[in-house]
Amino acid sequence: MARSSLVVALVACSLTLAACGGSGRLAPLENSDTDLPSTTATTAPATAVRDVLKALVDVGGPAGYEQVPPDLDTDPGSLSTSLEEQFRGAGFQWAMRRNWADGAGDTVTLFVGAFSDPRGAAQAFACGCGGDPVPGVPGAVVDRTPKSFELSLAVGSFLVMVDGGGPSPASTQDVAAVAGAVRQRVLGLGPSGEGLVGGASTGGTAV
Fold this sequence. Notes:
By secondary structure, the protein is an alpha+beta fold. The chain contains five helices and seven strands; from the N terminus they run H-H-E-H-E-E-H-E-E-E-E-H.
């Protein structure tokens, strides 16, 4: 990462540490999250939020990867410790995950979280605080190691995270295509991607 970009990222991280309640690194997508929704109340009706999220995660995975069903729910009461810390005070409502695997030990997980408004999604994104810009996906950043990757993007009232790894992890280009597809669906929800997440009906959804 260029020095100027690093300075900007560090400043953004320092400004959000209090809200994040901890370290500024993108929280990993842990498999400890429960797979079943609870009755935890959310700002918008859970069914409406889930309907939107189900459509948003319904995208294809990287070439050579097969979807591993089912898509999984994460409600506010079942966040992993790291995600609970990252989302603290951001108005998290609900999330869904979709998983893919290539049969050779490489995996990709898409996590789309709904927040009460774009400010909350932006706060949760800032609490990830790290990574290099992703070509072709405005606002996205990715942090890679030889065996893993973590990509994140805030768009409208949603936080999109794609992570995974294995012996030969998916390329940034392939992972960016997944995130970019979700971004386009969010933009189809209406101005700033707010739409149904705030509890209001939106017309002409592109999902």
